[in-house]
Write a structure and sequence with these properties.
Blueprint: H1 3-9, E1 14-19, H2 29-39, E2 45-48, E3 54-59, E4 65-70, H3 76-86, E5 91-97, H4 103-116, E6 120-124, H5 145-156, E7 174-179, H6 190-202, E8 207-212, H7 216-228, E9 235-239, H8 247-255, H9 261-269, H10 273-293, E10 298-302, H11 308-317
Parallel strand pairs: 1-2, 1-10, 2-5, 5-6, 6-7, 7-8, 8-9, 9-10
Antiparallel strand pairs: 3-4
The chain binds flavin-adenine dinucleotide (FAD).
Length: 318
């Protein structure tokens, strides 16, 4: 079912979560260990992230460095299929990124998702790989998510890259995009960011999932700013509970977000990471309850390899 239909059908807040494919070499049971404890709470959908190849340098026996291209977290398509098979009542939302894909490869990926019976896609540009300063699109690939959305919309209208194809199938993907309550790191200001967010919606995106935030006011202000910009689609808040003391420095650096002073103060009082973990759960419960009261359609949690904290939050909230 399309996420927008799922939202329309339900008059209460639902929950969803995001999975990170495990590092190469791990088994699918790694994914089930994260998903299984959350299934009793009836999630509406599960997102599966996509990760671009990166260049790594390995030292050879002769001391010279060998350049290798690797995907450290492969498996988005297969994990999406495995989840559909194991939990038929839950929608799967694979992420599709611009990075590393030509438009032809994007079309092949979309055909695979269509054959798998996937109805929803989160369309993203993707970050630059760790060893690159800026995002570099693939030759004949998309530089930004707006044109990726447009390509999916074209397929929904039966227009494939080869314009001479006759009698083509119209896919029916419901496309979501990313939104940034505290602005995307590369944007000079929020107005700039919102202008391009609107372009993604005008290109055919039907819902937004936000970057994580720890202060709900940021989300409420973002929703108002979107509505003022004429963006009317559902805006699903993305939440990640704080798990360790280290994260109070790492998360702002990686995701361009603020951690509220009261949360930082409490985290600094913790004697160990178990206490920070418990604090993260308490904060997550309070954030979730307030967002729910405000009528958000879905609460979306980023698992980042663990789900015990999400389990405790959804148990308290749903
Ligand atoms: P875009 O919408 O292309 O925006 C990127 C920047 O360019 C913004 O500053 C925007 O204002 C600007 N911009 C947008 N369009 C244009 C244009 N036409 N011309 C000029 N400037 C423009 N990354 C992954 O690699 N894999 C994932 O699975 C993944 N999942 C994510 C899930 C969520 C919910 C979120 C919020 C982020 C996720 N990311 C993921 C991270 C995301 O890929 C990065 O934040 C990336 O830097 C931007 O992606 P985007 O789709 O927002 O890009």
């Amino acid at each position: 079912m399309r996420i927008t239909d799922l939202i329309l059908k339900s008059n209460k807040t639902r929950f969803s979560f995001e999975l990170l494919p495990p590092l190469r070499g791990n088994n699918i049971t790694h994914i089930y260990r994260i998903t299984d404890p959350l299934m009793e709470f009836n999630p509406s959908f599960i997102n599966v992230t996509y990760h671009q190849e990166e260049v790594v340098y390995k030292k050879r026996e002769n001391g010279l460095l060998e350049k290798k291209t690797v995907r450290k977290r492969p498996g988005t398509v297969a994990i999406s299929a495995a989840i559909k098979y194991k939990y038929p009542s839950v929608e799967v939302v694979p992420h599709l990124i611009c990075g590393g894909f030509s438009k032809e490869e994007t079309e092949y990926a979309l055909i695979d998702f269509h054959y798998l019976g996937i109805d929803n896609i989160l369309a993203l540009r993707g970050d630059a790989p760790k060893n690159q300063r800026h995002f570099i699109p693939e030759k004949n690939g998309h530089a930004h998510a707006d044109t990726l959305v447009a390509q999916i919309t074209a397929m929904n209208q039966g227009r494939y890259l080869d314009e001479e194809l006759q009698g083509t199938f119209h896919t029916n993907f419901c496309v979501g995009v990313a939104g940034y309550p505290e602005k995307h790191i590369e944007s000079p200001n929020q107005a700039y960011d919102l202008r391009f967010l609107k372009e993604k919606i005008d290109a055919g995106a039907e819902f937004i999932i936000t970057q994580m935030f720890f202060d709900n006011q940021r989300y409420f202000d973002f929703v108002s700013a979107c509505r003022n910009e004429g963006i009317t689609v559902p805006i699903i808040p993305g939440l990640k509970p704080l798990c360790s003391l280290r994260e109070i420095n790492v998360l702002p650096q990686v995701f361009n977000i603020d951690i509220p002073e009261s949360l930082v103060r409490e985290a600094l009082k913790c004697k160990n990471n178990e206490e920070v973990f418990r604090l993260g759960v308490e904060w997550g419960i309070a954030q979730s309850k307030e967002l729910m009261q405000s009528g958000v359609p879905v609460l979306h949690y980023f698992t980042v390899g663990i789900s015990e904290n999400i389990r405790q939050i959804v148990k308290a909230v749903f």
